[in-house]
Amino acid sequence: MTEPVLELTHVDSGYGEVQVLDDLTLHLNPEEIVCLIGPNGAGKSTVLKTAFGMLTPWEGSVTYHGDEIGGMAPEDIVREGIGYVPQTDNVFGSLTIEENLRMGGVARESGLDDVIDRLYERFPLLDEKRSANASTLSGGQRQVLAFARALVMEPDVLLIDEPSAGLAPNTADEVFGHVQAVNDLETAILMVEQNATKGLGISDRGYVLDQGTVRFEDEASALLDNDDVSKLYLGG
Amino acid sequence: MVLDLLASGLVFSSIIVLGSIGLSLIYSIANFANFAHGDTMTVGAYAAFVTFGAVGGLGFGILGLPLGFFVALLVGIVAAAVVAVVTEKIVYDGMNAGSIELLITSIGIAFIYRAIIQMGFGADFTRFDVQTLRPIEALLPYGVRVTLHDVAIVVSAIILVGSLHALLQYTDLGRKMRAMADNPDLARVSGIRTDRVKLWTWIIGAGLAGSGGVFLGLYNQLSPRMGFNLLLLIFAAVILGGIGSVYGAMLGGFLIGVINQLTPVLSDIRFLTEMGAMLPLVPDSFGIVIGIEYANAIAFVIMVAVLLVRPNGIAGEAV
Question: What's the domain range around A201?
Answer without folding.
Answer: 6-233
